[in-house]
Amino acid sequence: MIENNPALIDAIRDRFAHVDSCPFQGPRIFFENAGGALTLKSVVDTSSFYASLPDNPGRINAAGQAGQNVIDKAKADLAVFMNASSGQFFTGESGTELLFRLIRTACVNSPGKSTVIGSSIEHPATRSAARRWAEISGLNYENVPHDNETGLVTAEAYAALLTPDVAVATILHASPVTGMAMDVAAISKTIRGVAPECLIIVDGIQHAAHGQIDLDSYDVDGYAISPYKVFSRHGYGIAWASDKLSILPHDMLINAPATGWEFGTRDAGAYATVSDVVSYFEWLGGETSPETGRREKIEAAGRAIHAYEAHLVDAMINGTGNLPGLRDMAHVKIIAGADNSSREGLVSIAVEGMSSPDVVEALNRQGIRTHTRKADHYSGNVLAPLDLADCVRVSLCHYNTLQEVAEFLGAIGEIKVEIAA
Protein backbone atom coordinates (compact mmCIF):
# COMPACT_ATOMS: atom_id res chain seq x y z
CA MET A 1 0.00 0.00 0.00
CA ILE A 2 1.09 3.56 -0.66
CA GLU A 3 -1.16 5.59 1.65
CA ASN A 4 0.37 4.37 4.92
CA ASN A 5 3.96 4.52 3.73
CA PRO A 6 5.37 8.06 3.85
CA ALA A 7 8.85 6.84 2.89
CA LEU A 8 7.45 5.24 -0.27
CA ILE A 9 5.50 8.39 -1.16
CA ASP A 10 8.73 10.37 -0.84
CA ALA A 11 10.55 7.81 -3.01
CA ILE A 12 7.80 8.00 -5.64
CA ARG A 13 7.85 11.80 -5.71
CA ASP A 14 11.63 11.82 -5.97
CA ARG A 15 11.42 9.97 -9.29
CA PHE A 16 9.44 12.75 -10.99
CA ALA A 17 10.58 16.11 -12.33
CA HIS A 18 8.95 19.30 -11.01
CA VAL A 19 6.82 17.36 -8.54
CA ASP A 20 6.14 20.33 -6.26
CA SER A 21 7.30 23.38 -8.18
CA CYS A 22 7.10 24.84 -11.67
CA PRO A 23 10.20 26.43 -13.21
CA PHE A 24 8.03 29.32 -14.42
CA GLN A 25 5.63 29.71 -11.46
CA GLY A 26 7.51 28.45 -8.43
CA PRO A 27 5.97 26.20 -5.74
CA ARG A 28 2.73 24.63 -6.88
CA ILE A 29 0.46 21.62 -6.41
CA PHE A 30 -0.05 19.74 -9.65
CA PHE A 31 -3.67 18.67 -10.05
CA GLU A 32 -3.64 18.82 -13.86
CA ASN A 33 -2.50 15.25 -14.45
CA ALA A 34 -5.27 14.48 -16.96
CA GLY A 35 -3.83 17.21 -19.15
CA GLY A 36 -0.42 15.59 -18.99
CA ALA A 37 1.18 13.72 -16.11
CA LEU A 38 4.49 14.61 -14.50
CA THR A 39 7.56 13.27 -16.28
CA LEU A 40 9.93 10.71 -14.83
CA LYS A 41 13.43 12.06 -14.27
CA SER A 42 14.75 8.98 -16.06
CA VAL A 43 12.68 9.93 -19.11
CA VAL A 44 14.25 13.40 -19.12
CA ASP A 45 17.76 11.90 -19.04
CA THR A 46 16.97 9.28 -21.67
CA SER A 47 15.41 11.84 -24.01
CA SER A 48 18.45 14.09 -23.76
CA PHE A 49 20.85 11.25 -24.55
CA TYR A 50 19.02 9.93 -27.62
CA ALA A 51 18.32 13.43 -28.94
CA SER A 52 22.09 13.88 -29.22
CA LEU A 53 22.60 10.89 -31.54
CA PRO A 54 22.73 11.45 -35.33
CA ASP A 55 22.40 7.78 -36.32
CA ASN A 56 19.21 6.24 -37.69
CA PRO A 57 18.01 3.08 -35.93
CA GLY A 58 18.83 -0.05 -37.90
CA ARG A 59 21.84 1.27 -39.79
CA ILE A 60 24.80 -1.12 -40.03
CA ASN A 61 26.90 0.59 -37.40
CA ALA A 62 27.12 0.38 -33.63
CA ALA A 63 24.84 3.33 -32.91
CA GLY A 64 22.27 2.31 -35.52
CA GLN A 65 22.10 -1.24 -34.22
CA ALA A 66 21.89 0.01 -30.63
CA GLY A 67 18.97 2.23 -31.60
CA GLN A 68 17.15 -0.69 -33.20
CA ASN A 69 17.76 -2.81 -30.12
CA VAL A 70 16.19 -0.08 -27.99
CA ILE A 71 13.09 -0.09 -30.20
CA ASP A 72 12.81 -3.88 -30.10
CA LYS A 73 13.18 -3.89 -26.32
CA ALA A 74 10.53 -1.21 -25.87
CA LYS A 75 8.03 -3.15 -27.97
CA ALA A 76 8.71 -6.24 -25.86
CA ASP A 77 8.32 -4.15 -22.70
CA LEU A 78 4.99 -2.81 -23.98
CA ALA A 79 3.77 -6.36 -24.55
CA VAL A 80 4.43 -7.08 -20.87
CA PHE A 81 3.06 -3.76 -19.65
CA MET A 82 -0.20 -4.10 -21.59
CA ASN A 83 -0.35 -7.92 -21.45
CA ALA A 84 -0.48 -8.47 -25.21
CA SER A 85 0.47 -11.97 -26.36
CA SER A 86 -0.09 -11.10 -30.02
CA GLY A 87 -0.48 -8.10 -32.33
CA GLN A 88 2.02 -5.28 -32.74
CA PHE A 89 2.96 -1.93 -31.20
CA PHE A 90 3.99 1.15 -33.15
CA THR A 91 4.39 4.88 -32.62
CA GLY A 92 2.83 7.86 -34.34
CA GLU A 93 2.33 11.59 -33.99
CA SER A 94 -0.04 11.32 -31.00
CA GLY A 95 -2.63 9.05 -29.45
CA THR A 96 -5.35 10.95 -31.31
CA GLU A 97 -3.61 10.58 -34.66
CA LEU A 98 -3.17 6.85 -34.09
CA LEU A 99 -6.83 6.40 -33.18
CA PHE A 100 -7.76 8.10 -36.45
CA ARG A 101 -5.50 5.68 -38.35
CA LEU A 102 -6.85 2.59 -36.61
CA ILE A 103 -10.47 3.64 -37.07
CA ARG A 104 -9.92 4.73 -40.69
CA THR A 105 -8.43 1.37 -41.57
CA ALA A 106 -11.26 -0.49 -39.85
CA CYS A 107 -13.94 1.57 -41.62
CA VAL A 108 -12.58 1.54 -45.17
CA ASN A 109 -12.20 -2.25 -45.00
CA SER A 110 -15.77 -2.85 -43.76
CA PRO A 111 -18.62 -3.99 -46.01
CA GLY A 112 -20.79 -1.20 -47.38
CA LYS A 113 -23.99 -0.39 -45.48
CA SER A 114 -22.66 -1.97 -42.28
CA THR A 115 -22.63 -0.05 -39.00
CA VAL A 116 -20.09 1.75 -36.86
CA ILE A 117 -21.06 2.04 -33.20
CA GLY A 118 -19.66 4.33 -30.52
CA SER A 119 -20.85 6.24 -27.47
CA SER A 120 -21.60 9.83 -26.54
CA ILE A 121 -19.13 9.73 -23.62
CA GLU A 122 -16.15 9.34 -25.95
CA HIS A 123 -13.42 11.90 -26.50
CA PRO A 124 -13.57 13.44 -29.99
CA ALA A 125 -10.44 11.45 -30.88
CA THR A 126 -12.66 8.43 -31.51
CA ARG A 127 -16.03 10.11 -32.10
CA SER A 128 -14.67 12.38 -34.83
CA ALA A 129 -12.73 9.62 -36.54
CA ALA A 130 -15.61 7.17 -36.43
CA ARG A 131 -18.17 9.63 -37.78
CA ARG A 132 -15.88 10.95 -40.50
CA TRP A 133 -14.79 7.58 -41.81
CA ALA A 134 -18.22 6.01 -41.48
CA GLU A 135 -19.58 8.71 -43.78
CA ILE A 136 -16.71 8.41 -46.27
CA SER A 137 -17.00 4.60 -46.30
CA GLY A 138 -20.78 4.56 -46.73
CA LEU A 139 -21.40 3.11 -43.28
CA ASN A 140 -24.11 3.91 -40.76
CA TYR A 141 -23.09 5.47 -37.43
CA GLU A 142 -24.92 4.45 -34.26
CA ASN A 143 -24.49 6.53 -31.10
CA VAL A 144 -24.87 4.86 -27.69
CA PRO A 145 -25.97 7.47 -25.13
CA HIS A 146 -24.11 7.61 -21.85
CA ASP A 147 -25.74 8.15 -18.47
CA ASN A 148 -25.51 11.85 -17.63
CA GLU A 149 -25.74 11.29 -13.89
CA THR A 150 -22.94 8.71 -13.62
CA GLY A 151 -20.77 9.79 -16.55
CA LEU A 152 -20.68 6.18 -17.75
CA VAL A 153 -21.68 4.09 -20.72
CA THR A 154 -22.33 0.42 -19.99
CA ALA A 155 -22.37 -2.88 -21.83
CA GLU A 156 -26.15 -2.87 -21.43
CA ALA A 157 -26.36 0.50 -23.18
CA TYR A 158 -24.36 -0.87 -26.12
CA ALA A 159 -26.49 -4.03 -26.19
CA ALA A 160 -29.67 -2.01 -26.70
CA LEU A 161 -28.38 -0.73 -30.07
CA LEU A 162 -26.23 -3.60 -31.32
CA THR A 163 -27.09 -5.38 -34.56
CA PRO A 164 -25.28 -8.19 -36.43
CA ASP A 165 -24.14 -5.72 -39.13
CA VAL A 166 -21.90 -3.78 -36.70
CA ALA A 167 -18.46 -3.89 -38.31
CA VAL A 168 -16.56 -1.32 -36.24
CA ALA A 169 -16.97 -0.31 -32.59
CA THR A 170 -15.22 2.31 -30.50
CA ILE A 171 -14.90 2.30 -26.70
CA LEU A 172 -13.55 4.93 -24.31
CA HIS A 173 -11.60 3.34 -21.45
CA ALA A 174 -11.77 6.39 -19.17
CA SER A 175 -13.25 9.86 -19.56
CA PRO A 176 -10.98 12.92 -19.25
CA VAL A 177 -14.06 14.94 -18.26
CA THR A 178 -15.87 12.78 -15.70
CA GLY A 179 -12.88 10.62 -14.71
CA MET A 180 -15.00 7.50 -14.96
CA ALA A 181 -13.63 4.20 -16.25
CA MET A 182 -15.73 2.02 -18.54
CA ASP A 183 -15.79 -1.77 -18.31
CA VAL A 184 -14.01 -2.42 -21.61
CA ALA A 185 -14.01 -6.21 -21.25
CA ALA A 186 -17.76 -6.33 -20.59
CA ILE A 187 -18.57 -3.96 -23.47
CA SER A 188 -16.32 -5.91 -25.84
CA LYS A 189 -17.91 -9.23 -24.80
CA THR A 190 -21.36 -7.80 -25.43
CA ILE A 191 -20.35 -6.58 -28.88
CA ARG A 192 -18.78 -9.93 -29.79
CA GLY A 193 -21.97 -11.72 -28.73
CA VAL A 194 -23.93 -9.93 -31.45
CA ALA A 195 -21.24 -9.09 -34.04
CA PRO A 196 -18.32 -11.48 -33.47
CA GLU A 197 -16.21 -10.22 -36.40
CA CYS A 198 -16.49 -6.57 -35.39
CA LEU A 199 -13.25 -4.57 -35.23
CA ILE A 200 -13.11 -2.94 -31.79
CA ILE A 201 -10.91 0.12 -31.17
CA VAL A 202 -10.27 1.48 -27.65
CA ASP A 203 -9.12 4.93 -26.53
CA GLY A 204 -6.91 4.19 -23.52
CA ILE A 205 -5.32 7.64 -23.30
CA GLN A 206 -6.91 8.80 -20.03
CA HIS A 207 -6.81 5.39 -18.35
CA ALA A 208 -3.17 4.44 -18.83
CA ALA A 209 -1.69 6.27 -15.83
CA HIS A 210 -4.28 5.05 -13.34
CA GLY A 211 -4.17 1.28 -13.49
CA GLN A 212 -3.01 -1.71 -15.43
CA ILE A 213 -3.92 -2.46 -19.04
CA ASP A 214 -4.76 -6.07 -19.94
CA LEU A 215 -5.21 -6.38 -23.69
CA ASP A 216 -5.47 -10.16 -23.70
CA SER A 217 -8.56 -9.97 -21.49
CA TYR A 218 -10.32 -7.29 -23.57
CA ASP A 219 -10.63 -9.14 -26.91
CA VAL A 220 -10.26 -5.93 -28.93
CA ASP A 221 -8.38 -5.00 -32.11
CA GLY A 222 -6.86 -1.61 -31.41
CA TYR A 223 -5.74 0.37 -28.37
CA ALA A 224 -3.96 3.73 -28.19
CA ILE A 225 -2.26 5.73 -25.45
CA SER A 226 -0.47 9.08 -25.22
CA PRO A 227 2.83 8.58 -23.34
CA TYR A 228 2.91 12.14 -22.00
CA LYS A 229 -0.12 11.19 -19.92
CA VAL A 230 1.67 8.18 -18.48
CA PHE A 231 4.94 9.71 -17.18
CA SER A 232 6.82 9.99 -20.50
CA ARG A 233 7.08 13.02 -22.79
CA HIS A 234 5.19 14.82 -25.54
CA GLY A 235 5.67 14.28 -29.25
CA TYR A 236 4.45 10.76 -29.92
CA GLY A 237 1.66 8.24 -29.36
CA ILE A 238 1.62 4.47 -29.06
CA ALA A 239 -0.87 2.12 -30.67
CA TRP A 240 -1.43 -1.60 -30.51
CA ALA A 241 -3.12 -3.39 -33.39
CA SER A 242 -4.33 -6.98 -33.34
CA ASP A 243 -3.08 -9.45 -35.93
CA LYS A 244 -6.50 -9.22 -37.59
CA LEU A 245 -6.35 -5.44 -37.92
CA SER A 246 -2.64 -5.39 -38.79
CA ILE A 247 -3.04 -7.35 -42.02
CA LEU A 248 -5.88 -5.25 -43.43
CA PRO A 249 -4.96 -2.91 -46.30
CA HIS A 250 -3.78 0.38 -44.82
CA ASP A 251 -1.64 3.41 -45.61
CA MET A 252 1.84 2.13 -46.44
CA LEU A 253 4.69 2.51 -48.90
CA ILE A 254 4.49 0.55 -52.16
CA ASN A 255 6.05 -2.91 -51.80
CA ALA A 256 6.69 -2.34 -48.07
CA PRO A 257 6.01 -5.23 -45.65
CA ALA A 258 2.26 -5.84 -45.59
CA THR A 259 1.99 -5.59 -41.81
CA GLY A 260 4.14 -2.47 -41.41
CA TRP A 261 2.35 0.54 -39.90
CA GLU A 262 5.17 2.96 -39.13
CA PHE A 263 6.25 5.74 -41.47
CA GLY A 264 9.77 7.08 -41.77
CA THR A 265 12.64 6.90 -39.33
CA ARG A 266 11.63 6.04 -35.80
CA ASP A 267 12.71 8.03 -32.75
CA ALA A 268 14.70 5.55 -30.68
CA GLY A 269 14.54 7.99 -27.76
CA ALA A 270 10.74 7.88 -27.71
CA TYR A 271 10.82 4.11 -27.51
CA ALA A 272 13.58 4.19 -24.88
CA THR A 273 11.42 6.36 -22.62
CA VAL A 274 8.68 3.74 -22.87
CA SER A 275 11.06 1.26 -21.28
CA ASP A 276 11.73 3.82 -18.53
CA VAL A 277 7.99 3.98 -17.79
CA VAL A 278 7.64 0.20 -17.71
CA SER A 279 10.66 -0.05 -15.41
CA TYR A 280 9.02 2.45 -13.07
CA PHE A 281 5.85 0.35 -12.84
CA GLU A 282 7.99 -2.71 -12.13
CA TRP A 283 9.84 -0.85 -9.38
CA LEU A 284 6.60 0.34 -7.79
CA GLY A 285 5.10 -3.15 -7.93
CA GLY A 286 8.17 -4.49 -6.18
CA GLU A 287 7.77 -1.88 -3.45
CA THR A 288 4.08 -2.59 -2.88
CA SER A 289 3.99 -6.38 -3.16
CA PRO A 290 6.13 -9.53 -2.78
CA GLU A 291 5.80 -10.31 -6.50
CA THR A 292 8.92 -11.15 -8.51
CA GLY A 293 7.62 -11.61 -12.06
CA ARG A 294 7.56 -8.59 -14.39
CA ARG A 295 3.89 -8.72 -15.29
CA GLU A 296 2.93 -9.56 -11.73
CA LYS A 297 4.81 -6.51 -10.42
CA ILE A 298 3.11 -4.30 -13.01
CA GLU A 299 -0.29 -5.61 -11.96
CA ALA A 300 0.59 -4.99 -8.31
CA ALA A 301 1.61 -1.43 -9.17
CA GLY A 302 -1.73 -0.89 -10.89
CA ARG A 303 -3.62 -2.12 -7.82
CA ALA A 304 -1.56 0.09 -5.51
CA ILE A 305 -2.05 3.14 -7.72
CA HIS A 306 -5.79 2.55 -7.93
CA ALA A 307 -6.14 2.11 -4.17
CA TYR A 308 -4.07 5.18 -3.28
CA GLU A 309 -5.78 7.45 -5.79
CA ALA A 310 -9.16 6.25 -4.49
CA HIS A 311 -7.95 7.24 -1.01
CA LEU A 312 -7.04 10.74 -2.22
CA VAL A 313 -10.32 11.15 -4.13
CA ASP A 314 -12.27 10.01 -1.07
CA ALA A 315 -10.53 12.67 1.01
CA MET A 316 -11.26 15.31 -1.63
CA ILE A 317 -14.95 14.42 -1.76
CA ASN A 318 -15.60 13.54 1.88
CA GLY A 319 -13.04 15.72 3.65
CA THR A 320 -9.87 15.20 5.64
CA GLY A 321 -8.98 16.30 9.16
CA ASN A 322 -11.24 19.20 10.07
CA LEU A 323 -11.73 20.23 6.45
CA PRO A 324 -15.12 19.53 4.84
CA GLY A 325 -15.11 17.66 1.55
CA LEU A 326 -16.51 18.85 -1.74
CA ARG A 327 -19.80 17.06 -1.12
CA ASP A 328 -20.36 19.17 1.99
CA MET A 329 -19.79 22.48 0.17
CA ALA A 330 -23.14 23.91 -0.89
CA HIS A 331 -21.51 26.02 -3.59
CA VAL A 332 -19.88 23.01 -5.30
CA LYS A 333 -21.47 20.55 -7.75
CA ILE A 334 -19.57 17.30 -8.33
CA ILE A 335 -19.86 16.06 -11.92
CA ALA A 336 -21.08 12.44 -12.10
CA GLY A 337 -21.94 12.37 -8.40
CA ALA A 338 -20.07 12.09 -5.13
CA ASP A 339 -20.55 8.33 -4.78
CA ASN A 340 -19.19 6.73 -7.93
CA SER A 341 -16.89 3.73 -7.69
CA SER A 342 -15.81 4.07 -11.34
CA ARG A 343 -13.89 7.30 -10.75
CA GLU A 344 -10.16 7.17 -11.56
CA GLY A 345 -8.17 9.93 -9.90
CA LEU A 346 -10.28 12.81 -11.23
CA VAL A 347 -12.98 15.02 -9.80
CA SER A 348 -14.69 17.63 -11.98
CA ILE A 349 -16.70 20.34 -10.24
CA ALA A 350 -18.74 23.45 -10.94
CA VAL A 351 -18.71 26.31 -8.44
CA GLU A 352 -21.97 28.21 -8.03
CA GLY A 353 -21.73 31.90 -8.79
CA MET A 354 -18.28 31.74 -10.37
CA SER A 355 -17.13 30.73 -13.84
CA SER A 356 -14.73 27.81 -14.03
CA PRO A 357 -11.93 29.88 -15.64
CA ASP A 358 -12.18 32.29 -12.68
CA VAL A 359 -12.01 29.38 -10.22
CA VAL A 360 -8.97 27.94 -12.00
CA GLU A 361 -7.28 31.34 -11.90
CA ALA A 362 -8.09 31.81 -8.21
CA LEU A 363 -6.61 28.40 -7.43
CA ASN A 364 -3.59 29.14 -9.58
CA ARG A 365 -2.90 32.29 -7.58
CA GLN A 366 -2.62 30.00 -4.56
CA GLY A 367 -0.26 27.66 -6.37
CA ILE A 368 -2.81 24.95 -7.22
CA ARG A 369 -2.79 23.90 -10.87
CA THR A 370 -6.16 22.71 -12.23
CA HIS A 371 -7.88 23.09 -15.60
CA THR A 372 -11.10 24.34 -17.18
CA ARG A 373 -13.11 22.05 -19.43
CA LYS A 374 -15.60 23.96 -21.56
CA ALA A 375 -18.73 22.80 -23.36
CA ASP A 376 -16.86 22.95 -26.67
CA HIS A 377 -15.88 20.36 -29.27
CA TYR A 378 -13.80 18.56 -26.64
CA SER A 379 -16.24 18.33 -23.72
CA GLY A 380 -19.63 19.60 -24.89
CA ASN A 381 -20.92 16.04 -25.26
CA VAL A 382 -20.61 15.64 -21.47
CA LEU A 383 -21.24 19.16 -20.14
CA ALA A 384 -24.04 20.42 -22.41
CA PRO A 385 -26.56 17.74 -21.28
CA LEU A 386 -25.84 18.86 -17.69
CA ASP A 387 -26.59 22.50 -18.61
CA LEU A 388 -23.02 23.42 -17.73
CA ALA A 389 -20.98 25.88 -19.77
CA ASP A 390 -17.79 24.66 -18.14
CA CYS A 391 -16.30 22.83 -15.17
CA VAL A 392 -13.09 22.71 -13.15
CA ARG A 393 -11.13 19.49 -13.63
CA VAL A 394 -9.07 18.44 -10.63
CA SER A 395 -6.99 15.46 -11.70
CA LEU A 396 -4.80 13.48 -9.33
CA CYS A 397 -2.07 10.93 -9.71
CA HIS A 398 -0.35 8.61 -7.27
CA TYR A 399 2.50 11.03 -6.57
CA ASN A 400 0.06 13.55 -5.11
CA THR A 401 -0.39 13.68 -1.34
CA LEU A 402 -3.11 14.01 1.26
CA GLN A 403 -1.59 17.35 2.32
CA GLU A 404 -2.02 18.64 -1.23
CA VAL A 405 -5.68 17.57 -1.15
CA ALA A 406 -6.10 19.41 2.15
CA GLU A 407 -4.61 22.58 0.68
CA PHE A 408 -7.00 22.33 -2.27
CA LEU A 409 -10.03 21.93 0.03
CA GLY A 410 -8.93 24.94 2.05
CA ALA A 411 -8.60 26.98 -1.14
CA ILE A 412 -12.06 26.01 -2.35
CA GLY A 413 -13.41 27.02 1.05
CA GLU A 414 -11.79 30.42 0.65
CA ILE A 415 -13.43 30.76 -2.75
CA LYS A 416 -16.77 30.32 -1.00
CA VAL A 417 -15.87 33.21 1.28
CA GLU A 418 -14.95 35.33 -1.75
CA ILE A 419 -18.32 34.60 -3.37
CA ALA A 420 -20.20 35.44 -0.16
CA ALA A 421 -18.29 38.70 0.15
TrEMBL record:
InterPro entries: Aminotrans_V_dom, PyrdxlP-dep_Trfase, PyrdxlP-dep_Trfase_major, PyrdxlP-dep_Trfase_small. Keywords: Pyridoxal phosphate, Transferase. Transmembrane segments: none annotated. It is an enzyme of class 2 (transferase). Gene3D superfamilies: Aspartate Aminotransferase, domain 1, Type I PLP-dependent aspartate aminotransferase-like (Major domain). It holds the Pfam family Aminotran_5. It comes from the Bacteria. Its EC number is 2.8.1.7. The keyword Secreted does not apply. Residues 29-245, 325-407 form the Aminotransferase class V domain. GO terms for molecular function: cysteine desulfurase activity. The keyword Transferase applies. This is Putative cysteine desulfurase. It comes from Roseibium album. The lineage of its organism: Bacteria, Pseudomonadati, Pseudomonadota, Alphaproteobacteria, Hyphomicrobiales.
